[in-house]
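Multidrug transporter
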Amino acid sequence: MRRALIPLAVVAALSGCANLAPRYEQPAAPIPQAWPADGQAAPQPLAGWQEFFVDERLRGVLALALDNNRDLRSAALSIERARALYGVSSAATLPSVDLGAAASRARTPAALTTSGNASIADRFSTNFGLTSYELDFFGRVRNLSDSALEEFLRTEDARRSAQISLVASVAQAWLQLATDQQRLRLARETLQSQQRSYDLIRQAHALGAQSGVALAQAQTTVESARGQVAAFDTLVEQGRNALALLAGTQLPAALLPGEGAVAVASLPTPPADLPSSVLQQRPDVLAAEHALRAAHHDIGVARAALYPRITLTGSAGVASPSLSSLFEGGSRAWSFGPSISLPLFDNGARRNQLRATEVQRDIVLSSYEKTLQTAFREVSDALAERRTLAERLEAQRALVAATTRSFELAQALFKGGGGSYLEVLDAQRALYAAQQTLIGLQLTDQANRVTLYKVLGGGWQAQAAAPAATTG
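Structure:
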C-alpha cells in the first residue's frame, strides 16, 4: 500500500512550481512627505486609548463600549469568518486523504449468468483515497489561498479601524453630552437671573416706577430663556440616549459627565517633523493595501486559468469477496487516475476575465491612493484647527470677561436710575452669547484632540513607519 502511495506523494511535491501573479511593490504615496511645521515641541508617542484619555468616567464608558457595541462585535465576527474561509482555501494546497470502507452483496438472475444459475456475489473493501487533488503547477490554488489570507488580514485591520472609530465616537458623544449639560446649566442660571429682574421690574411697574415697555422687554427675555432651557434639556436627554447606543448598554450615572468643564484627552500637539508615512500604519490604509495585495493574487488566478489544469484521483487499500480474507495476502488493490483540462477555445472568456481582473487591480490601487489622500487631508484639517485653538480660546475668554464687566456696569447704571433696561438686556444677551460660544470652543478643543487621535490611527510614532516588505 505504501509503495502505491509513493507516486502520489512525488507528483504532489511537484505542484506549485510557478506563480503567475505580478510581483507586488508598495505604491508610492501620492501625498507630501510631511505636514507643515508649527513650531511645537515633539511629544512622546501614544501607546493606546488608555494612555490618551485621562477622565476615569470616560474610560469606564469606553470599556463598556468595547465589550458591548454591536457594530464592533460584528466586525470581530467578520474576522472569524475570514479566518475560517482562509483555512478552507489554504487546505486546498495540500492533498486531502479519506479513509473509506464498503461492503456490498449483489444477486444476478439466472438469465444473466453464463452457467444458467442465479449467483450472489459479495465484496468487501477498505482504502485510503485521494480525491481530485489539483497539481498547482501555475500557482492557481496558492494564489487563491494567498488572496484569502489578504482578505483575512484586511478584515482584521478593518476591525482595528472600527475600534478606533468607536473609541473616538464614544469620546465625542461623551464630550457633547458634557457640553450640553454645561449649556443647560448656563441657560437655567440665566433664566433665574432674568426671572429675578422681571419680578423687580414688575413690582416697580406696579408702583409706577417702570414703564410697560420695560416690563414687556423683561418678560420677553424670560420666555426666551425658558425656551432655551427646554431645548438644552432635550439635547441632554438625546445625548444620553446616543451614548447608551454607542456603549451597547445602559450607563451607570457615575460614568456620566459631572458638573463643570471637562478635559478628557492628554494629547499634545504632534511634532513639527511628523512624517506622512505614519499614515501607512493607519488601519484603514493597511486594510486598503491588503485589498491591493489580494488583487495581485487574483490576477495570478486569472492567468493560471489560461493554462492546463491537472488533477489526481487515486486510492490504495484492500478488497476481498469475503470479510474474513480482507487483509490476507493478495487482497491489495489500488487505482490511480490523473486528468488534464486544456483550454482550447472559449470565445475569449478567459482572456476577458484576466483583463477584468487587471482592471479591478487598478481600481483597488486608485482606492488605496484615495484612502491615503483622504487620511492626509483629515490630519491636515485637524492640525490646522489645532494651531489656532489656543488663540481663539484666549480671545473668547477675554470677550467673556469684557461682556461680564459691561453687564455689571449696565446693571449698576440702571439701578442708579442713569440708564434704560434695554441696555441691561443687550449686555445680558451679549454675555450669554459669549459664554455659550466659550463652552462651544472648549468642546472644539477637546474634540480636536480626539479627532487627532482618530485620524492618526490611534496615535503616532516619532519616527517614520517602516516600509512594508515586498513580496512576490
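The CA atoms of residues 171 and 436 lie 21 Å apart.
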